[in-house]
Amino acid sequence: MSARRARWLAIGASLAIGAAIWETAGQLSNASFMAPLLGSEILGPLIGNAGHPGTLPRLYAFIEQGEFLGSLASSLLLFATGFTIAIAVAIPFGLVLARLVLLRVALEDYILVLYVTPMVAMIPFILAIVGFDFWPKVLVVTLFAFFPTLYNTLEGARSVKPELIEVAKSFRTSERALWRDVLIPYTLPYALTGVRQATGRALVGMIAAEFFLSTSGLGEEIMVSSRNFDMAGVLATIIVITLLGVGLMRLVQACEARLAVWRGLDR
After folding, report:
1. Burial 93-114 (b: 16+ CB within 10 A, else e)
2. Which of helix, strand or coil describes residue 150?
C-alpha cells in the first residue's frame, strides 16, 4: 500500500470514528444540550428515536434558507475586509521595522505586548470609542490578524543572514534591489506562516465582533440558536465556520509550500 493511500485511509478511519462518537454522544444526551450528527431525521426509523434533531439535516435546512446564506455572506465580507487590511499593513510594516533598527527598538516591546494581549479584552474599548457598526467590527478582525502576521514577518526579516546583505552590498546593490532580491524573498515564507496563524485568529475575531458589537452574520445565527436551545443549529453553524477555517488554512499552506523554495537562500 502506498504511503499516500495509507494516509487517506487513516484520515477516513479517524473521521468515521469521530462521527460515530459524536452520533452516540448526541443520541444518549439531552437534545437541549447536545445534538447528534445525523439525528432522528436519518437514523430515527432505524433506532426508533424521534427526539434528537441532527446537525447535518439542520445544516441542509439552513442552506435552503436564504437568510443563512445572507449571514454567511455578511461574515465573509467582514472577515475578508479585516483580514486583507491586516495583511496589507502588517507585512510591509514588518519589513520596514527590520531595516530601521532604531524604529524597531522603539516599538518592539509594544508589539510584543499587543501580540500576547487577548484581543477580546479590547472589544469593549473599541465599542466605547468607535461604536458598533461594520467598520468597528472590521477593526476587531484586523487587530486579531495583524499582530501574528507582523511578528512573524519581523522575525523572518531579522533572521536574514548578514552575509547575504554584505554580499549584496559588495556588488553595489541598491536598497531597492536589496529589498526585491534578498529581504522580501527570504522573509516571505515566514510572513506566510504568520498569515496562516492569523487566519484562525481572524475567524475568532469575526465571531467575537458579531457577538459583542452588533449581532450579525454567523455569530447571530449561533446566538439565535442558543437562545432557542437549538443545539443542532448551533453545531451546524460551527461546522460551517470550521470548514471555512480549514479551507482557508489549507489555501495558505499550499501557498507557503510553493514559496518555501525561497528558504534555500539561507543554506
Report:
1. bbbebbbeeeebeeeeeebeee
2. helix
Q: Of 39 and 48, which is predicted with more confidence?
A: 39
Q: How far is CA 197 from CA 25, 184, 247, 248, in A?
A: 31, 19, 13, 11
In whole angstroms, give the CA distance from residue 163 to residue 195: 27
User: Which domains, and CATH codes, for the chain?
Assistant: 1-52 (no CATH), 65-266 (1.10.3720.10)
Q: Identity (one letter) of the amino acid at 167?
A: V
Q: What is the pTM of this model?
A: 0.83
Which tens digit of pLDDT belongs to each residue from 100-124? 888 888 888 888 888 888 888 888 8
Task: Using the predicted structure, report yes or no on whether residue 31 has a pLDDT greater than 60.
Answer: yes
At residue 43, the pLDDT reads 58
